[in-house]
């Protein structure tokens, strides 16, 4: 695991590929949510530009809005300290153009914010 957040939702990002032409990384991403009466697990693969990754980490560092998006616009992880929440969404389009999506919102605690910053800032940069 390259990046792992353990709570209140579990987020795991594993690097699959690197692209130097358009500085970007392909991740296998998993969200696991377990609450009172349900359990949800989402697994997908996404491409993230290195610049977007850096802006996300910097946004967390300065205490502002931080957004991590994939290059296809089908994945978002949004840290919003003003609303006090962490929003995430993941969608996948099949070959016929039909889309399946999942999204969620979690309370943004200081512990979660620190955990996100630590996990993403410790990612070994190659750019």
Please give the CATH architecture.
Roll
- Terminal CA distance reads 19 Å
CATH topology: Transcriptional Co-activator pc4, Chain A
Number of domains: 1
Helix content estimate? 10-25%
CATH class reads: Mainly Beta
Mean pLDDT: 94
**Count of DSSP H/I helices:** 2
Low-confidence stretches: none
* Class based on secondary structure composition and strand pairing: alpha+beta
For the largest beta-sheet, the strand count, sense and barrel status come to: 4 strands, antiparallel
Number of strands: 8
Give the spatial strand order of the biggest sheet: 1-2-3-4
Q: Beta-strand percentage?
A: over 45%
Give me the strand/helix succession: EEEEHEEEEH
Tell me what you see in this structure.
- The relative contact order is 0.18.
- The protein starts with a strand and ends in a 6-residue tail after the last helix.
- Helix 1 (50-62) packs antiparallel against helix 2.
- The chain has one domain (3-121): Transcriptional Co-activator pc4, Chain A (Roll).
- The protein has helices at residues 50-62, 110-121; strands at 3-5, 10-19, 24-34, 39-49, 66-69, 75-80, 85-93, 99-107.
- The chain is an alpha+beta fold.
- Strand 7 and strand 8 (99-107) form a beta hairpin.
- It contains 2 helices and 8 strands.
- The chain is globular and about 40 Å long.
- Strands 1-2-3-4 form a 4-stranded antiparallel β-sheet. Strands 5-6-7-8 form a 4-stranded antiparallel β-sheet.
- The model has no long low-confidence stretch (mean pLDDT 94).
- Helices cover 20% and strands 50% of the residues.
